[in-house]
Amino acid sequence: MHEDLARSWTLEDLARLSGLSRVSLMRRFARVMGEPPLGYLRRRRMELAARRLREGGEPLAAIAREVGYTSEFAFSRAFSRTFGVAPGRYRTSASPDLPVREGAR
Fold it and tell me: Are 90 and 83 in contact (CB under 8 A)?
């Protein structure tokens, strides 16, 4: 998953790669990581996107593709739900280390 965050991962893909059933994967992953696999993936994508936004002037569409979103609109909505601010505003914010909103997974 970490090697290809942009891939359109499904629970079935992850279960197959891990050699577990979907239910077993969900249980083990949640026990070890504290959240379900796809929630973890979403969080990792948003963390990477936030870092890219802080680091430079890469276009939003490019960042969206890099973290697995096919449209800038879908990426912007997910980012806003996660951080409580639009990606463009996050980029220009005086305090770019905004925390992930509680329950935004």
Answer: yes
